[in-house]
Design goal:
This protein is of the alpha/beta class. The protein has 5 helices and 6 strands. The radius of gyration is 14 Å and the shape is globular.
Length: about 130
């Protein structure tokens, strides 16, 4: 929530087992940012994606995939929803298939992944550069 607030995110949709401000642990690490960024718990991500697309949102999934483009070359079009998958398993094939764009962060080290919250921060601040 703090990173989303700092990057100017307009809303967070919490899915799966993502913590929400209703959870004392998540509220503690938010340090009050949950009061500034609207949020909603969503049980079915596919339904949310269809709803957002129906009102004009572009869907970008942050995921390593054969059809992904590097974040550095991603020029977002707004309104945009950025989807981040499960910390270990990533995003499902159906979510990737329904995305307008799949983006990934260029990696130089031996590991092929970052912590989801770190990856979100990198992507969010890249995307923020394109807001007017």
């Amino acid at each position: 929530f703090r990173t989303a607030d700092a990057a100017g995110v307009s809303k967070i949709y919490c899915t799966g087992y993502s913590g929400t401000p209703d959870d004392p642990k998540a509220k503690k690490v938010s340090l009050g940012a949950e009061h500034f960024v609207p949020w909603e718990k969503v049980s079915q991500l596919g339904v949310l994606i269809r709803k957002l697309k129906s009102i004009g949102y572009r869907i970008a999934v942050l995921e390593q995939d054969k059809k992904s483009i590097l974040l550095d070359s991603f020029k977002p079009r707004f309104p945009l929803a950025l989807i981040l998958g499960n910390e270990v398993r990533g995003s499902s094939r159906s979510i990737i298939k329904n995305a307008d764009t799949v983006i990934e962060i260029s990696m130089r080290g031996k590991k092929e992944s970052l912590n989801v919250s770190v990856a979100f921060g990198i992507a969010a601040f890249h995307i923020r550069r394109f807001l007017h």
